[in-house]
Amino acid sequence: MRDWLVGGALIESPDGLLLVQNKRRDGSHDWSTPGGVIEEGEELLAGLAREVEEETGLVVTEWAGPVYEVLIVAPEMGWRLRVEAHVALAFEGELTVADPDGIVVDARFVAAHEHEAHLSACSPWVREPLLEWLAERWAQQRGFEYDVVGQDRSTMTVTRR
């Protein structure tokens, strides 16, 4: 089993929540918060700040959290994923898409009434915790757990525990 650690950034402005559009290997697109895989030996907030800057050009100068953690287990695909979502309390810079990995193809601040539409195509483990946090704005960390059955994205089923 391969273990992944991912950081997710919750960045808001008067225009809304920052979402990035990701181009997947199969050619599909979905939206999520900025962030990504934390490299081995890298401190989570340092890696999250690096990912945010790479994907959006923004520099986060102050964090809070984590506000939620997501655990996903996909034994048939050979991976386990742990995601920590942190709130950016302060950031600077100009929003630009400059992802060196070529995954992020768009980034924008999305108004509250558009969140569900933008997040409809992403994985439940991305969409559900984020929409719940946006609705409730809890301060203490919450946990979410998901099981994935299937051999690939097109045939997998996801169950929330």
Keyword list:
161 residues; Nucleoside Triphosphate Pyrophosphohydrolase; four-stranded antiparallel sheet
Summarize the structure.
This protein is α+β, with helices and mostly antiparallel strands and 161 residues long.
What's the layout of helices and strands?
Elements: E1 2-10, E2 12-13, E3 16-23, E4 29-32, E5 35-37, H1 44-56, E6 59-74, E7 79-92, E8 104-110, H2 115-119, H3 124-136, E9 142-149, E10 157-160
Parallel strand pairs: 1-7, 6-9
Antiparallel strand pairs: 1-5, 2-3, 3-4, 3-8, 6-7, 9-10
Structural notes for this entry:
The protein is α+β, with helices and mostly antiparallel strands. The chain has a single domain (8-67, 86-142), classed as Nucleoside Triphosphate Pyrophosphohydrolase (Alpha-Beta Complex), CATH 3.90.79.10. The chain contains three helices and ten strands, in the order βββββαβββααββ. The strands form two sheets. Strands 5-1-7-6-9-10 form a six-stranded mixed beta sheet, with helices on both faces. Strands 2, 3, 4 and 8 form a four-stranded antiparallel beta sheet that branches. The longest helix is centred in the first third of the chain and has 13 residues, at 44-56. The protein is globular. The chain starts with a strand and ends with a strand. The model has no long low-confidence stretch (mean pLDDT 95).
